[in-house]
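Please check this record.
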Amino acid sequence: MNIAQKYVDGLKKAYYENGGEKQWNNFEKVMHGASKGDIEKLRVLYPDVPNSLLQLLEIVDGTYWRKYAEEEVTLIFLGSDVEEYPYYLLSAQQMIDTKDKFRRWGDYLINREFDDIPVDEGICDDLDKLCWLHFSDCVNNGGTSQLFIDFSPSAKGKKGQILRYLHDPDELVIVADSFDAYLQMIMDEEYDFITEDTIEE
């Protein structure tokens, strides 16, 4: 079993254990994986895209205002190092559509314009070299937090590391060395973002 399938199986269990059985079952009835075409487009845009992300998308093609058949889905699917804070998974097409969006509004972070905003030194400081795959928005429609795979780290970072942007107070930090390590981190934390309260939201 690959780590993506293991992750989804554990997530389903977390939903069941926190009173979200009906919500998960309804989702499972309509959801499907990304098309081969969208997967291939993602590979072309991001040649180093990790297999574990593609495997996840082959199981479920997003949970963020994602229309499956005639039903629009918003389902909490991911977490981060922020305790109990929930995120959605973007679809392959949403990941394609949001390419380079960060550089249009997050330049102040990459350029280190403010000394009081924490930015990990493993993150590059050259906006022109920036290559990030935006794969998740938080439940506040991404206004509070977003997650990225970083393919353009600084010399002190690692290619493929996972970045978490947080707003108010702003910060940009590395939360895992790879997408596999990121999924494992969430599993090790026992999907702490799935609670009775977040399911009710």
User: Anything to note?
Assistant: The mean pLDDT is 95. The two ends are 31 Å apart (CA to CA).
